[in-house]
Amino acid sequence: MESRFKIFSDPVHGFISVPKNVILDLIESAEVQRLRRIRQLGMGHMVFPGAEHSRFGHALGAMALMQDALATLVEKGTPVSPEEHTAALAAALLHDIGHGPFSHTLEHDLMPGVPHEAMSRALIMRLNEHAGGRLDLTLRIFDGTYERSFFHALVSGQLDVDRLDYLRRDSFYTGVVEGEVGVQRLIKTLRVEPTAGGADSHLVVESKGIYAVENFLLSRRLMYGQVYLHKTVLAGDAVLRAALHRVRAHLANHKADFADTCAPALLYFLTHTITLELLSRTAIQHAFCALDDADILTSLKRWMLHDDPVLADLSQRFINRRFPGITFLDAPPDEETRHAWLSRAAEWLVSEKLAPQSTAYHDAHYYVTFGHSRTARYDPRWGAIRIRERDGRVREFSKTSEYARVAAYPDAGISPYVVHPKTIGTTGG
Amino acid sequence: MESRFKIFSDPVHGFISVPKNVILDLIESAEVQRLRRIRQLGMGHMVFPGAEHSRFGHALGAMALMQDALATLVEKGTPVSPEEHTAALAAALLHDIGHGPFSHTLEHDLMPGVPHEAMSRALIMRLNEHAGGRLDLTLRIFDGTYERSFFHALVSGQLDVDRLDYLRRDSFYTGVVEGEVGVQRLIKTLRVEPTAGGADSHLVVESKGIYAVENFLLSRRLMYGQVYLHKTVLAGDAVLRAALHRVRAHLANHKADFADTCAPALLYFLTHTITLELLSRTAIQHAFCALDDADILTSLKRWMLHDDPVLADLSQRFINRRFPGITFLDAPPDEETRHAWLSRAAEWLVSEKLAPQSTAYHDAHYYVTFGHSRTARYDPRWGAIRIRERDGRVREFSKTSEYARVAAYPDAGISPYVVHPKTIGTTGG
Amino acid sequence: MESRFKIFSDPVHGFISVPKNVILDLIESAEVQRLRRIRQLGMGHMVFPGAEHSRFGHALGAMALMQDALATLVEKGTPVSPEEHTAALAAALLHDIGHGPFSHTLEHDLMPGVPHEAMSRALIMRLNEHAGGRLDLTLRIFDGTYERSFFHALVSGQLDVDRLDYLRRDSFYTGVVEGEVGVQRLIKTLRVEPTAGGADSHLVVESKGIYAVENFLLSRRLMYGQVYLHKTVLAGDAVLRAALHRVRAHLANHKADFADTCAPALLYFLTHTITLELLSRTAIQHAFCALDDADILTSLKRWMLHDDPVLADLSQRFINRRFPGITFLDAPPDEETRHAWLSRAAEWLVSEKLAPQSTAYHDAHYYVTFGHSRTARYDPRWGAIRIRERDGRVREFSKTSEYARVAAYPDAGISPYVVHPKTIGTTGG
Amino acid sequence: MESRFKIFSDPVHGFISVPKNVILDLIESAEVQRLRRIRQLGMGHMVFPGAEHSRFGHALGAMALMQDALATLVEKGTPVSPEEHTAALAAALLHDIGHGPFSHTLEHDLMPGVPHEAMSRALIMRLNEHAGGRLDLTLRIFDGTYERSFFHALVSGQLDVDRLDYLRRDSFYTGVVEGEVGVQRLIKTLRVEPTAGGADSHLVVESKGIYAVENFLLSRRLMYGQVYLHKTVLAGDAVLRAALHRVRAHLANHKADFADTCAPALLYFLTHTITLELLSRTAIQHAFCALDDADILTSLKRWMLHDDPVLADLSQRFINRRFPGITFLDAPPDEETRHAWLSRAAEWLVSEKLAPQSTAYHDAHYYVTFGHSRTARYDPRWGAIRIRERDGRVREFSKTSEYARVAAYPDAGISPYVVHPKTIGTTGG
């Protein structure tokens, strides 16, 4: 008998078994293969050189963890039908399919106002059409409209397979070993509990898993602080966005022709305004699926030679990793502070011959970026973690007797910062 | 040229290079070789089967991390003389040499009132005599009387190589991967700062290491909750202690002869009262060095066949891992609660024919143990962690601006519990 | 629903699920718990300090790999009944239960002529009686009399779960990372093929696993060369054996009384001759089960103070790791060579005041040990590895077309050596 | 004091310390940063999804291993001056800088007849000019003209840091754990021995490292068999090359205009013939440095829509991972066999409407690729591994007494294969 599984070797989870059914078909689709060309951490590998992994491995890994989670639940007496099993695996595999090039870095720049989840949903719809409706249940699980709500919680909840995989995976590839989550321990403490009325059922964590939950929340916090919001990452993000904004500005003003130097799919997004309502259009989906990290990189390499010195400079800074400085501010910058930074940058632009006096202050906006970072914390309002205590009662994590105070993990709060040319940093602190 | 190092293969840190000087001599001494026969986690391996590692590997590992820490400090401009280097390595190697069989489990039972640190000091004195005074500086570092106080902080401080090694090592061997501390990252952020007056210098952590510190504190907390204070560990500890108490009681009452069934070195400690003042005596040191886990195990195996049914029962429960139950209490038990548990246990002893009615309540004290566990937390009063902020100022960790609230890690507080025969647990909760 | 499994955290394989049936009962038996007190590598941890793991973890690990192997076979269409599943798990768990203290080191000294497999069988019989015959099928699998012979091959064959676990585990704990076997990859290539006649079925490896087989054979070879037959291990083994031989000689000559200083169970084996036929006797089984590493260690520590200087010296050499030298010989030593070594050792004994001139040559036999080591190699006569080639034909590994020459892995052959007092080594080469 | 090192977190080797001198300058050069955009394993990640790592991490890792190797040699008494140290680090860092997009896959297609080593040398020359001659010694080490020849051996020899890093790194990222080389163990056995005449000195391995050498050779063999020459990798390589050949053919015949759809730097190489003599030209170096994986990917995505159905088909097969089949042949294919495969492919092209009858046989050459793979083996003629035996004599590895036969590792020999459309494979075997 032929094996019913195709085996993938994954350095993070070991061997991953993919059922040779619609799941394998999905993996072989162009939409999922495209994830191989989108790095999981945007430009994170430019700070952590090992973290060059793509969203493809993450999609596979989330699916593998879904298999583990369902096996645990079934073992504890929660029935899962073959249809539900396949639908849940598909939901885990496809949950992030709507990520575009450089993942989160460009999420709000390519299609302002369109979160990647919305595009994921549009692409699952598209794949469902190709698959003749075999993803109907997947869509309901993804949307949270399926009555057995723990499936949705496993795909999109505080302890979903997305987070469990990406924290584990990013810790592995960055070498930030202390961010390692005890994924298998956590999964083994999962359980499904009927709700009070009995109409629904919740995903809960057995009380013995409370340390694993705590560890999970703190690993997430640590990974945000050490990796996702690393200051060099924030600085690199700013350069990449500035270059794209510059091109957009040129295009809006018809100041330059980018037909030759910009990948067509990228040009599409730089010249169209995409809204949530339009995502179901084939043309948009088509352009989106044609776009990946390579288009951004080849365009930037062309723009390094562009006539516009600002665009050329920004592009080479990104490609050759000559990132600007970043300074954290004590308070959100007021008008005066902003003006001071921009003025200093304008002077610098003139001295560097990147801009004439007349446009320097305007151009300085491409070199000075005000932003703020915010560490992830657990807030039950955004999705509760439920603990089943030894007495059988289910409590929201922050309400558990012994660990009531754990919910008070310090919120680093909003940390305002400014990204700026390195040489103006010392006087600008 | 012959290599100046002997290489040990350590699964935790990789290859460890031991200088072929007094350090190698110390490792080859009977006192240090004895650590091979003392398990690091007492009876922890009976809960985590992989954690069968001894204190020998920990001693080597702490020495290896001292090498790494000194290399970092030297690289940042803090001079370390060859004498200081060797003395610090010796101090790291020997810091825990005073641990007796089953490490912490029996620490307060073999020699009540004598902490292992005091015995470590006595044995370092002894080794220093053998070594002709070559450990003078080691002793000063160990004692904290050496003027360059950062050496002492590396041996016995909040971020000492002892803790860094044991957390990393115990996480490795237990398989509790989420307890992994980013040891190398933490070490790389260490630095020595002169104090205000300049008379001394402090060990500080650079500000970029603040996440590593946080991770360290939380890994420690997690390891306490998941491993060191695991409820089965507490239950197993109680059985072992009860068996020794029973023998002590027999010996005090001359009720039985243990010359045949008790290892001589163990008998010494069960029949003598050791105080801090006596530790310098050769006889005590000799008896102590002759004692290890094997003596406890062979004695227990003999006592499994003892005439006293209580001693026989306790011994076989430990050897064959038939541990009692443990119940956490909502409050420290008052007289009435204690009496209730003891009464139930007495009944059980009679029904099990382990004790006659007349002594059952008395004997129940060997089966019912009241205790409390306390999770480790950071408290600057017990040793400060100092952070060197970006502006050059040094602040105690709990006073750092951004992470002020981190110091408020929830203290699980004192958790009272009772260890008791399993069958009386359900009614006794 | 309560989970049907008890979970063990294993640093090698991760979480191990033990079914709460007869398998868990077996694990909780005194016979299996005893394996916690027997180190897997005898005195190997005195060379590789991390390798302090016991046979208990190995037994659990072999059982876990059996679960994996059966899951793979079932997935490929080979039916396995629940009874077979449990019996195979029990066989994997118990396969090495007959190992005595210090495992292979003392295997041929405690009970000359009795291989550990014979004692394993006797103890499985004993456990089967306690279990009311529930291990009947386990015994047949262990014996190789069960008609579905692949079960036996998984317990005791070239690619059995015993080897797969111990190579992986010993590589892990010694830190000899290059000995790592791709256990999961190998298991995933297993398959059951009907034999020509169809009466039986064989365990085969799919052709894509041929590299995994090669890697397995070479990792085994490397582990033998680097670990199991490490020269310091051979030297340490010789000291331990010599001490026991010395005690045996005293006992045979009634020269000394060991009742006080030798653990009773050990004394039993030093004063009785055990043969294969006697293994079914309860007294022998009882004494065997009472014996573990701790008895050897405590006895040696007592013997360090014995009146016989040779016994005292040998004992302290083992306890304090002052091992002798070892010299490899170009050829098996002839009488003259042996005599020369012994004479030099006799002189040394006199000079060290360990023996008077009159007995020195006789006593030298406890200090000079001639032996030979032999690296493990694949020989189809001792159990074939069968490869299922792409064309469906099954060939014995050494007959496979592409890898015919692989079977010719160099046999290091018999390497004769002599263990001897270090100081006489240089002239004795 | 500021640290003299910049620290990189590498998941393979842990923390890597880069000296803040010319080494850091080189890492920050555009030439080295470009390696971030070239995958180490060409399209290997399409078979091993975790293996998405670039040549940048490999360059860093090789440099880190050079640090380790030099530290070992210095510790054993071989002097290394600061200049030599820096030069050797630079040589390790830059040794592979001449790799183009998709590494080995396209090495012989972009610039036929120009091995990547020649381009590495040209780029080191270029960097040396920028660095004002600071790489003079690096060049001599790279070329093998420096009199202390062990430096060259460490950069380009049987046991060079290149191989040690890539085997370890590729094993890590592919998850092929059994390919793990004991890199640190091997490095610790290195030593420099003066040659007979004394004019030069050789890199040798101490005799205790002979198992490490054996493991190294066999890990390499295993990685070739399991990873580098994996049949899906060979099939994927063939598609990519065929697409580029198709474009080259169009360009040669002026059949199509690729100015719009082909990255300029790629077009340069598809329209110019580069020879070894021309490598010093700035234009070629400039074009080469502008080229990376992204250019190939964006071009292929454009060509998926090309008018030429063959080019469009080949391009989408690569991008969407619809790879052809591969069949190993019993013997190198003769004319008849080749013709048979091509004829079947031609029929298939017609039936798929990819080509008209008139050109089908010609076009079939883009779908049928004959090749052969050859496993790496140790051959002293291509660079000797020298073993320093216990008696001090140095022997070439294959001449060592005990392991003479190891040199006879089976050479899988030349394995001819044909890559072909999947559907014609079954009849074509």
Poorly predicted parts of chain A:
402-410
Oligomer status: homotetramer
Portion in beta strands of chain A: 5-15%
- By DSSP, the count of extended strands of chain A is 9
Q: Helicity level of chain A, as a percent range? A: 40-55%
- Helix/strand-derived category of chain A reads alpha+beta
Order of helices and strands of chain A: EEHHHHHHHHHHEEHHHHHHEHHEEEEH
- How confident overall, as mean pLDDT of chain A? 91
Q: Explain this structure to me?
A:
The structure is a homotetramer of 429-residue chains. Chain A has 429 residues and is of the alpha+beta class. Helix content of chain A is 48%, strand content 11%. Chain A has helices spanning 22-27, 30-33, 55-75, 82-94, 104-110, 116-130, 136-143, 150-155, 161-174, 183-188, 210-228, 231-252, 264-271, 282-289, 293-303, 309-319, 335-351, 357-364, 425-428, and strands at 5-10, 14-19, 190-194, 201-206, 325-328, 369-374, 386-388, 394-396, 414-420. In chain A, the strands form 3 sheets. In chain A, strands 3-4-7-8 form a 4-stranded mixed β-sheet. At the B-C interface, strand 1, helix 3, helix 9 and helix 15 of B face strand 1, helix 3, helix 9 and helix 15 of C.
Provide the descriptors you would attach to this structure in a database record.
four-stranded mixed sheet, 19 helices, 9 strands, 429 residues, alpha+beta, homotetramer, three-stranded antiparallel sheet
Structure described in brief:
By secondary structure, the first copy, chain A, is of the alpha+beta class. Chain A has helices at about 20-25, 30-35, 55-75, 80-95, 105-110, 115-130, 135-145, 150-155, 160-175, 185-190, 210-230, 230-250, 265-270, 280-290, 295-305, 310-320, 335-350, 355-365, 425-429, and strands spanning about 5-10, 15-20, 190-195, 200-205, 325-330, 370-375, 385-390, 395, 415-420. In chain A, the strands form three sheets. Chain A has a four-stranded mixed sheet with strand order 3-4-7-8. The first copy, chain A, has a three-stranded antiparallel sheet with strand order 5-9-6, with helices on both faces.
